[in-house]
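Obj: model holo form, ligand = flavin-adenine dinucleotide.
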Amino acid sequence: MSKDTCIVWFRRDLRLHDNPAWNAATNSGCAIIPLFIHSPNEDGKWRRGAASNWWLHHALKDLSTQLETHGLSLILRSSESSLSELTALTLESPVKAVYWNRCYEEQSINRDTLIKKALAADAIEVKTFNGSLLFDPLKIANKSGLPYKVFTPFWKACLTLELKAPDTSPANKSVHNAPQELKSDSLDALKLLPTIPWDTDMAQFWQPTRSGGQKLLKQAIAKSSHYLEFRDIPSDDGTSRLSPYLHFGQISPTEFHHEVLTHCTAKDLAHNGMLRQLFWREFSAHLLYHFPHTHDQPLRNEYQSFPWDYDTELLTKWQRGQTGYPIVDAGMRQLWKTGWMHNRVRMVASSFLVKHLLQPWQEGAHWFWDTLVDADLANNTQGWQWIGGCGADASPYFRVFNPILQSKKFDPDATYIKKWLPELRNIPTDQIHAPWEMEPLELEAAGVKLGTEYPFPIIGHQEGRQQALDAYSKFKDSL
Ligand code: FAD
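Output (holo structure tokens):
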């Protein structure tokens, strides 16, 4: 008798380890159709950006290789509609059930609800799981049953909940392939890679595979006792760099959490800031789930009327790393070349955009979305609203980062700046944070002509700060 067949629909869970949907499907004894649907138009204005597409290409290739070790072929389908693709597949092969791990963004929830209904109408079971967060966002509420808007109580509430261990059960089972050959698009046909080869640096910086993530996780554990000491130093590899692996699900947050807990000493754990960051990730997901409009509107509604001063020229200079502030420009160039930016510099660069330059945070969020390999709607939204003062538990708008002091404090020997702005490499370390303050002869000796090799600052720090404060007081007065 032929076996029942089921589909495992991979989405942002591109792994076989600790993957609840995959585990449940394989444990059911069904023959498996592993499926990925590329359907960018369903994501509307948050369709994956170029850097994320690059990552996805490699993550799918890697997943496909992992599946081959089980004798399975990943079925790739490029489509306008996931529903029509799933329906087509159920007509091509008699499918008993579809398994997937949930995505918690509103657009995905709406789509998945429709799909669930349509499949149920055809008597196809749908089994869904949480494979991307430590906790389902709808399961956490404050004493009044409302979502949290402040991180610390949210975090404390999470700490009282039982954390599941990673589920690695199916390794003991043989996995069965679907009985017939199914049509699959080639990976190249998804056109995820750039046509102009701007990805050379990214390929050197990242190993976008499950084993690349495992390597970084091992390193992260080894350095976790020094995390708090080094996490703010952008030239140091003090943070895990696991964000894209978490976003695409090559490493699960449960695995991350479990591995750190298992391998760290009690003393290290008492100060383990890295695990705390995982709860910021949970908090972001919680916020976006409960306040889905915040991907492009402020959580604090009064900020709708904030007097931004939209200017494409300023925005373009910021995007290109041409602001004249070395720490900001180094960050923007790191982003462009590697698809990633250190968190401390994300804060300085984003603050500079929304405060010194008075550009709407949404513009910055879109640029990050297109250029980050870890672009994540929940984290990006929370990051930008935090800096824009309009989100949950946000840094107040009137607190303006001083990019020169931040630079001196967190990149004191200018290793980071010199790496990403080689044109400034001959400037003495104590002067590099504000090169416009140098004498012309000093600049000449360093081989830098401001306005030619490197720009003059697009705005003075005091002027930018004052402009931000004036806008803020105008905004407060208008409430
Ligand atoms: P680690 O310090 O090693 O932290 C471990 C993990 O915790 C990270 O991989 C990440 O998943 C999570 N995490 C860490 N910091 C935060 C945070 N502040 N908020 C939420 N989760 C966090 N992160 C993204 O993953 N995607 C984004 O699109 C994104 N956009 C951001 C935009 C702005 C303006 C700012 C200020 C921050 C943004 N962040 C974003 C958060 C943070 O900068 C990155 O998660 C972090 O730099 C990733 O590096 P890491 O993996 O070495 O982090």
